[in-house]
Specification:
6 strands, Nucleotidyltransferase, domain 5, 11 helices, alpha/beta
């Protein structure tokens, strides 16, 4: 592992003097975010994260404060992070969701003693920019929340869209209406359910969904997928796979606000990794 500390990072490690009542925190938001980011990447417990940061600072010979594990847990509850940077609007948004298990004492008992426990889950909803591969929107909900109810929150983060592509679970009038209200020219590419029927205005003023149904009826679902570009949705499934391979398939935090911080840091890490991997093209002539 190679770690660089710039002069700006060293200078910003210590928290600025507090102007309100209360104790002075020894470390800044940058220090807490750095520690929690390393925790997400290496899948560490908070005590292990404290030890890793202390080792790194000692090896670098930096006389900087090491945030302890209780401080990391407490500050994660209110950590202010920069919002996900959207792509060049309008974006071609690919949306999907996946389950993340909650790691805790139940998981330890299962591993140590084989005790059977009832596992709890949270649902991660992500929106990906098809052009850049970056995750531009993410929300975390309980496992019983309908996917379609998160469309508004995802669009708030992603901004204007040129197209909105997702699976059949989002085949609802509210989804089509929300996307069209925000981006009237956007293509809504959602496969209709097998039991779907045309709208009452299909003859005189067909909606996008009506046109999808007509093409599927005339040419079949596979031809529709190719013509509409629905196959691009595989990219967001790849992003979910990358999330679970790099970050893991579980959440280590114990409260919902800390879990949201954990997800925000994980998304930032994956986007930074992607940017480092992509080639830069320079025109010579």
């Amino acid at each position: 592992m190679t770690v660089w500390f710039t002069d700006a990072a060293v200078a910003a490690w210590k928290a600025e003097p507090r102007t309100t009542r209360g104790g002075q925190p020894p470390t800044s938001t940058l220090a807490i975010a750095t520690a929690l980011t390393l925790r997400a990447v290496f899948r560490l417990a908070l005590c292990q994260t404290e030890g890793l940061i202390g080792s790194i600072l000692a090896l670098l010979g930096l006389d900087l404060a090491v945030p302890d594990h209780s401080t990391l847990s407490r500050r994660a509850e209110t950590l202010a992070l920069s919002p996900v940077r959207p792509g060049s609007p309008p974006v071609h948004l690919l949306v999907d969701s996946t389950g993340l298990k909650l790691c805790g004492s139940g998981e330890w008992l299962l591993e140590k003693h084989g005790t059977r426990t009832r596992r709890s889950w949270r649902k991660l909803h992500i929106g990906m920019d098809a052009d850049t591969g970056r995750i531009v929107a993410a929300t975390l909900t309980t496992s019983n929340v309908d996917d379609a109810l998160q469309v508004s929150a995802l669009l708030d983060q992603a901004g204007p869209v040129a197209s909105f592509t997702t699976d059949g679970a989002y085949d609802q009038d509210g989804v089509h209406g929300e996307v069209t209200r925000r981006s009237p020219e956007a293509a809504v590419i959602v496969p209709p359910r097998s039991s779907a029927v045309p709208s009452d205005t299909a003859e005189r003023a067909p909606t996008q969904r009506d046109r999808h149904l007509q093409m599927i009826s005339e040419h079949g679902r596979r031809r529709w997928q190719k013509a509409s570009g629905y196959h691009w949705r595989a990219l967001v499934e790849g992003d979910i796979s990358r999330f679970k391979r790099v970050i893991g398939d579980g959440l280590r935090s114990r409260t919902d606000r800390r879990r949201e911080t954990e997800i925000a840091l994980a998304v930032s890490v994956l986007n930074q990794m992607l940017e480092l991997e992509l080639p830069e093209y320079v025109r010579l002539v």
